[in-house]
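Annotated sample (chain length 197).
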Amino acid sequence: MRRPLLIVLVLLFSSPACAMAGDGPAVTAPDPGPSAKAPPPPPEKRVPAVDRNDPLYGRVEGKNFENRCQGDSQCHSGGCSGEVCSAREGIITTCEARRWPQGKAACGCVEGECVWYRTGKGEGGAGNLLEGQGKPCREEKCPAGLTCIAYHGVAGPAGPRLQSCEVPCPEPGAACPDGQSCITLADGPGKVCRPRS
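Output written by the structure step:
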């Protein structure tokens, strides 16, 4: 009789026991890892900041230099005023006091080419300019809501006559589009609306 009892006891103590709730360490679900996290938002669409018809387009977009790129790190601003965006570093240009057409845009890689660009959120300080605002007039005409203003730059009347499409605000209290305020561009078109900084 001892043998069957011994076998029963050996089997009882050697068989794996089922864990009861509350017995042993808590079991947690494995960490899903980075692949289960929400994907990053898509990058903002980049839009070239300088119109191809602008007379300074070739200069500020570095058309005489290598411009192919695969990423922003390959694009550099250069020139005396930092006015040139190109894949070539150390570009030297003449020094001129003028308003450059790219404004406060960013220099980066857009569709495989280094260019000045803006995004939908106004990255690079582009703010909320109206379509064509601050750009040269075309045959003394501008998009709806803008006025073609003629002026002389820093050279005064001895220099070239320039034109740009603007929202003028010559009178005190003149209204500007939402997100813009009246500023004076002394060597440019005078009192005009521009995005608030």
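Annotation: Confidence is low (pLDDT under 50) at residues 17-22, 122-126.
Annotation: Residues 128-197 form one domain.
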